[in-house]
Amino acid sequence: MSQANQTVVPKENSRGRVLFASMIGTTVEFFDFYAYATASVLVFPALFFPNATAINAILSSFAIFGVAFVARPLGSIIFGHYGDKLGRKGTLVASLLLMGIATFLIGFLPPAAGSWTVLAPTALVLLRFAQGLALGGEWSGAALLATENAPKNKRAIYGTFPQLGAPIGFIIANLMFVALQTWSTPELFQAWGWRIPFFFSAVMVIIGLWVRLKLVESASFQKVLDQKKVVKSPFAVTMKKHWRPTLAGTFIMLATYVLFYLMTSFTLTYGTQPASIEQATAAAEAKGKAFDAAGFVPGLGIERPTFLTMLIIGVVFFGIFTVVSGPLAEKFGRRKFLIWVSAGILVFGLAWTLFFGPGQAAAMAGLIIGFTLMGLTFGPMAAYLPELFPSNVRYTGSAVAYNLSSVIGAAPASFVAVALWKAGAGNTMGVGLYLALGAALTLVALFLTRDTSDVDLEEYIE
């Protein structure tokens, strides 16, 4: 075969391909995840728990929401194993495909009635578990795709691109829910409108797969192959030799997870809950249901489309400050920068009732401040966590740390917050103290961990 007829295989990924592939994949993953999170507040309590009281239906919906966080550490072990043994590319494709299939199938689930009274919630649990497995492998692979292909002094900047998938996916998912609620009747939305975002995910998955299939392996992983340093059991090696950075990374992510799920799932529940018994009675009568005053907990009484719009505005700040965080983390170092941001989250938690209690304007201010802090703390994580681990266990180590944090930080956040709000009879002080505690634990982890800005990712192999 002549040289002119040979296919030229690229030896490295272009900057544009790296940044777009890392961002589009996490956008798809987080879109799917947030579509479920939004539906778990707006639709699933009534759809899958029709016989429960309003507050118990919400708690049951959040409990299934938390199933994915239990699955995520298992997903991090499975996908981390193959990511460190076979390569980043194939693992990223597999995680994206699993998330897409699970989300698409959720859109077909019938209401919990008749023969589906038990089967529908059970199927939802299984599909939610599959979503968790997929997300357990996605984030770390996308973070490695960005940072292992970045110049040494720009890893935190490149690392913000997979992080942007979170606000972008959130905005797309919630814009769809706002549009569907605005352009359809409540009956149509409850019957089939909520399913459209789950079906739409198939289109986004195809785009993500097309981009990721064009990637080649990073130089860091290729060096592991060349030096024959692939380990037999990445998870076992991580737990035996690198348990300290794994534990540190878990708590470094804690405040980020608690903050995000309070700012999204909990505030949506709290913000749209009727503010008075009279308002709750009217809402129940409009749905043709009897109102049970015994289980009533007052919220802000804001209309759902209005509060979803407020959330979208807040998430715009999340995206902006995710981008801003990259250069700042390069300038000041990951550790020092995150110490200051975590201190800000702690103060925000102590001041929580100043924003979530007085009314709509204060809540909007709280959403902007909270999501700004979220962008600043989330942005550097894609650089910081992978830099804690050597190349031959980097996928597993960063994935396990990230997803263990989801178990203790994200999974209980909405459930605990609702319980604290209920215990406070509508007062949210306990919710703020819960956030402050998470931030305090993150600060301890940061003070006990070194800065990793000067780590050479290609040479750090054990």
UniProtKB/TrEMBL annotation:
The chain crosses the membrane at residues 18-36, 48-71, 92-113, 125-145, 157-180, 192-213, 247-268, 307-325, 337-355, 361-379, 400-421, 427-448. The keyword Transport applies. Residues 18-453 form the Major facilitator superfamily (MFS) profile domain. InterPro entries: MFS_dom, MFS_sugar_transport-like, MFS_trans_sf, Sugar_transporter_CS. The keyword Transport applies. It is a multi-pass membrane protein. PANTHER family: INNER MEMBRANE METABOLITE TRANSPORT PROTEIN YHJE, SHIKIMATE TRANSPORTER. This is MHS family MFS transporter.
